[in-house]
Specification:
This protein is α/β, with parallel strands linked by helices and 475 residues long. It has two domains: 255 residues, Glycogen Phosphorylase B (Rossmann fold, 3-Layer(aba) Sandwich); 200 residues, 3-Layer(aba) Sandwich (Rossmann fold), CATH 3.40.50.2000. It is built from 20 helices and 14 strands. The strands form four sheets. Strands 11-10-9-12-13-14 form a six-stranded parallel sheet, with helices on both faces. A four-stranded parallel sheet has the order 3-4-7-8. The protein has a two-stranded parallel ribbon with strand order 1-2. α9 links the parallel β7 and β8. Belongs to the UDP-glycosyltransferase family. This is Soyasapogenol B glucuronide galactosyltransferase. GO terms for molecular function: glycosyltransferase activity. Keywords: Glycosyltransferase, Transferase.
Length: 475
């Protein structure tokens, strides 16, 4: 979202980002840097009503370890801010509202103000096309039991893509509160001027065209926005929240990059499951053994563990061993991912198929081992493995609720086989890496003058200017 705001500011749009203090602290350095470059961008901080919802000051955002009750209170606090934010739209004399999809109420606010609303949809065009397919045709209902490995085809898509019922989100299989929220989001999308995606036409143009036709609405791919907005080392180092870690962030950056710089080109496997994923100790053991047995150098980003946690103590011993052999490097907590991925030593990545990481890996020209967990990640895996053919599936069978482990443990042999394909010298492996490099070149062209995303940004801004002129003339 912030990178999209920064790209718009790069093209002469006057941008105000509305955020609570803690959220703003995660990206303020980037905004300040852009402002110092002469771009018209700023953050307007609104105080989060922590006391009103029973939270201590400073608890406004959540991560993988946040308790469900706290998440509920944060959501309640955001609801309490609706009137204040809508009033801000008026005071700032907004000509357009760009909103995350989880704020469907902004569709009503935009309608009252008579201005366009753009909804940012995270994830791929393929994922949202797949959601629409399942919602429209319910193909999974034709399979008698969801606890089966029988596959169904996603109808109406440009490619023949198969899934099992257990790989679908639980709110699709059985309606719950999240199903209701998604219905509100889809309704707000229908009432918007259009949608924005962090994608680019050369990556999934077929699905962009399909989605626009299926939904019957405007949509613009503006990506890769990270590649576009974060052009210097300071931007890349800060993305994802280095500011939260003060000196440790800089020390970690220097240490891991120094280690990478000592390794041959394309020799290191990078392993990261994003900021919102966690594993039981039994799974961490399998991953560690697979990495050690692979024979490849690796860099693994792991979550902080309590000292008395079995997985944490096992990993500490594992870290000592691979550090002594110089075969592995463990990063505990936050990692400067953009700088890592573009380092020449990185030869491939094991990923949870979160869209930010996918786009950053595509930018860097890296093929991927796919290990989806929740949200739209199983759909993203289909794009990587079956459409783009730049991914090899580790073989995960079941979608799990966010913050829950699930019962499935992927064994070291499965992990090892996927790593062998990703990093190997067989024709399949070489071709996969070649395709990834070609997409990297296409990503760089997309944001240059005349490129697909550059053209979309210019066109979108022109349309918004025309709408403003029409309103002015009517008034």
């Amino acid at each position: 979202m912030v990178d999209i705001a920064r790209v718009l500011a790069m093209h002469g749009v006057d941008v105000t980002i509305i955020a609570s203090p803690v959220a703003a602290s995660l990206f303020q350095t980037s905004v300040d840097g852009d402002s110092s470059r002469g771009r018209s961008i700023r953050t307007h901080v609104v105080k989060f009503p922590a006391a009103e919802v029973g939270l201590p000051d400073g608890v406004e955002t959540f991560n993988v370890d946040t308790k469900p009750d706290t998440i509920f209170k944060i959501a309640k606090g955001l609801q309490l801010l609706e009137k204040e934010i809508e009033k801000l739209f008026e005071e700032l004399q907004a000509d357009c509202i760009v909103t995350d999809m989880f704020y469907p109420w902004t569709a009503d606010a935009a309608a009252r103000l008579g201005i366009p609303r753009l909804i940012f949809l995270g994830g791929s065009y393929l994922a949202h096309s797949a959601y629409h397919s399942v919602k429209t045709y319910a193909p999974h209902k034709e399979i008698e039991s969801e606890h089966t490995e029988d596959k169904f085809v996603l109808p109406g898509l440009p490619h023949r893509l198969e899934m099992t019922p257990l790989q679908l989100p639980d709110w699709i299989r059985e309606p719950n509160g999240y199903t209701y929220l998604m219905e509100m989001i889809r309704d707000s999308e229908r009432r918007s001027y259009g949608s924005l995606f962090d994608s680019f036409y050369e990556l999934e143009g077929e699905y962009q065209d399909h989605y626009k036709k299926a939904i019957g609405a405007n949509s613009w791919s503006l990506g890769p926005v990270s590649l576009w907005a974060n052009q210097d080392a300071a931007d890349k180092a800060g993305r994802g929240g280095q500011a939260r870690f003060e000196h440790r962030g800089k020390e970690e950056e220097d240490g891991c990059l120094k280690w990478l710089n000592s390794k041959p080109e394309s020799s290191v496997l990078y392993v990261s499951f994003g900021s919102m994923s966690k594993f039981p100790s039994s799974q961490l053991v399998e991953i560690a053994q697979a990495l050690e047995d692979s024979g490849h150098d690796f860099m693994w980003v792991v979550k902080k563990k309590d000292d008395d946690d079995d997985g944490g103590s096992f990993l500490k011993e594992f870290e000592k061993r691979v550090k002594a052999s110089n075969k592995g490097y463990l990063i505990w907590g936050w990692a400067p991912q953009l700088l890592i991925l573009e380092n020449p030593a990185i030869g491939g990545i094991v990923t949870h198929c979160g869209w930010n990481t996918i786009m950053e890996s595509v930018n860097a020209g890296l093929a991927m081992v796919t290990w989806p967990m929740f949200a739209e990640q199983f759909f993203n895996e289909k794009l990587l493995v079956h459409v783009l053919k730049i991914g090899v599936a580790v073989g995960v069978k079941e979608w799990k609720k966010w913050q829950e482990f699930g019962e499935e443990v992927v064994k070291k042999d499965q992990i090892g086989k996927a790593i062998d394909v990703l990093m190997g010298n067989e024709e399949e492996s070489v071709e996969m890496r070649r395709r990834a490099r070609e997409l990297s070149d296409a990503a760089k062209r997309a944001i240059q003058v005349g490129g697909s995303s550059h053209t979309n940004v210019v066109q979108l801004i022109q349309e918004l200017k025309s709408l403003k002129l029409d309103r002015t003339n009517i008034n």
